[in-house]
Design the sequence.
């Protein structure tokens, strides 16, 4: 919390500005994140490959630079 006291010229009135911070509970974050890896060879970014997402039918699949299907 920070405060600033600004006295008035006649010193009978003063202004006090302050910032109040209320601590809140942090929300619990639930996620289903998995590492991006090629569906063919299971290699990912850690192996130095680039990963591209491509729609195959109604599904979204991840392919590395060597296994990406041609149109």
Sequence:
């Amino acid at each position: 919390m920070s405060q600033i006291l600004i006295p008035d010229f006649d010193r009978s009135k003063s202004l006090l500005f302050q910032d109040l911070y209320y601590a809140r509970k942090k929300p619990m974050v639930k996620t289903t994140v998995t590492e991006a890896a090629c569906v063919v060879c299971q290699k990912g970014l850690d192996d130095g490959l680039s990963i591209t997402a491509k729609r195959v039918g109604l599904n979204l699949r991840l392919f590395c630079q060597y296994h990406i299907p041609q149109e």
Summary: The chain has a mean pLDDT of 81. The chain has no helices and four strands. The two ends are 60 Å apart (CA to CA).
